[in-house]
Amino acid sequence: MRLSTGLAATLLLAACAHIVPPPGGPEDRLAPVLTATTPDSVASLPGFKGSVEFWFDEVVSEGQQPNFGLGTGTLEKLILLSPALEVPNVKWRRSRLVVSPRGGWLPNTTYRVELLPGIQDLRNNTLKHGAVVTFTTGTELPTDTLRGRAVDWTTSRAAPGALVMAVLEPDSLAYRTTADSTGRFVLGPLPHGEYLVYAVLDQNRNLRQDLRESFDSLRVAAGRDSVGELWAFRHDSTAARIRDLGVADSVTITAGFTVHLDPTQRLDPDSVQVLALPDSVPLVVLGALPTEAFDSAFPPAPPKRDTTAADTTAVDTVATPAPADTAATRPRTRLTGPRAPARDTTDMAPLTTRPKLSDQLRIRVAEPLVSEGRYLVRLLGLRTVSGVEGPASLSLIAPIRRPPPATPDTTAVSDSTQPPPPTTPPPVR
After folding, report:
1. Which residues, 6+ apart, have CB-to-CB distance to 105 below 8 Å?
2. Are the CB atoms for 287 and 294 separated by under 8 Å?
3. Nearest-5° angle of CA 47, CA 48, CA 52?
4. Residue closest to 376 by CA, chosen among 272, 238, 287, 293
5. pLDDT tens-digit profile of 272-286?
6. Fold for domain 142-235?
7. pLDDT by residue (tens digit) across 343-379?
């Protein structure tokens, strides 16, 4: 009995141990190669009861985190099973991965199993691309494809790795994929129909849309393949409140808000009130705009030209003329072979198809603010980027305005012909 118990413990420890690469031999720097997938993609398999398998040309790593169905396992993070939203069963079988849904395959359903980039071998060589297996369990073969790009609106840049979900209407079946390093995605083949497409900034990388994560959505008609750009932003159901007020100059007030504002909204001057307290005397408001639009509408005055000092620099008429451009006078260049092509930075530059998000406004008034004066700033009908409208108000104390320091007069010439004033010698003690 004791021998059987010890043998069982030994087998259990051997099963739990991680496989390590054998010592010696040439160093392996090649990533594992995906050699086959089962079942065949795109296939119709009514009554399918098996598993989806990904086969490699060598033993792959189990990863550091075990796969217990919580979505935290190393291999679980590399598998997207659609349309199921729960974490699938992912089993490691040395040189292959075996995937199946926890509740079994449903009949008359189109399934999409995607292996994301990131699988490693025992020497941590990483496979840079993934694979997709699509099949049906009795319904028609899928034919539609959705293409688009995910953008982070807070930075106006592409969102690499963004979670993309296409929800088939009216069945509410969600098919998922992730955007590439440029924010672009291709999701297909999918069942024919109308889709509500989401782009989510998956901050915790759990391949799910969680609360407070930025997203954008667009409804795509049946038969249309282009989604366009999805500009993800943080949605909020509360109205904007003024976070702080400041003074940029004597006629400009800066206002910061708790949420991003609708960048397309232009407040009417009548919707912006600046009241001088305590008598609530209104000041004339010329405009309230985001920073970029404000700088265009109210450009700063050019600096005044200093006309006090005349330019008396004489023209040098005796300068040596420039030498003629000959082969002997040209600088020698070192030949280094063909020039490398310039790096393409178009995918990394900020996008300009939408205005930038901002949580600030600049308010221009017609008369200067009084030094240490108290004012009440009130905005009516202010709209957030989520479309929530409401008033916002806050009081302001204008800073102390001090005159600039006087410039010393250096134009006066001292009279050197006058004797210096007499000096009194120190008393002798």
Report:
1. 48, 49, 111, 137
2. yes
3. 170
4. 272
5. 999 999 999 999 999
6. Immunoglobulin-like (2.60.40)
7. 544 566 899 999 999 999 999 999 999 999 999 999 9
